[in-house]
Amino acid sequence: MLHKTVETDKPKGWYVGPWNSDIPIPIGYANEGVNEKHYHAQMTEVYLIAKGTSVAVVDEIAISLQAGDILIVEPGEVHTFSSSSEDYLHFVLQTPFVQGDKELVE
After folding, report:
1. Rg of the Cα atoms in the chain
2. What angle do CA 86, 89, 93 make, to 5 degrees?
3. Is the pTM of the predicted complex or chain greater than 0.85?
4. 25-53, pLDDT tens digit by residue?
5. Cβ–Cβ < 8 Å for 31, 8
């Protein structure tokens, strides 16, 4: 059994993943939409919107997100979060986990 809680003083973080457990995929969170344009060459990211609203930009297409939504970003899709409400929270899963598979885009 593993129990973790969101660290509200940090904009995002990782609960668990292959680096600290036998769980093969990372599971993390963000309590704000972090504006950092990037892509993954091999990993798919699954965002589960828990509360609040945000605007994600995927391959230059703005997508309005709200609690209850899911957003799946596939390998090679450039993405970021351009804004979010003060009460925003999402969970994120990465699969398959590939260490260092994040490329920043300017």
Report:
1. 13
2. 155
3. yes
4. 999 999 988 899 999 999 999 999 999 99
5. yes
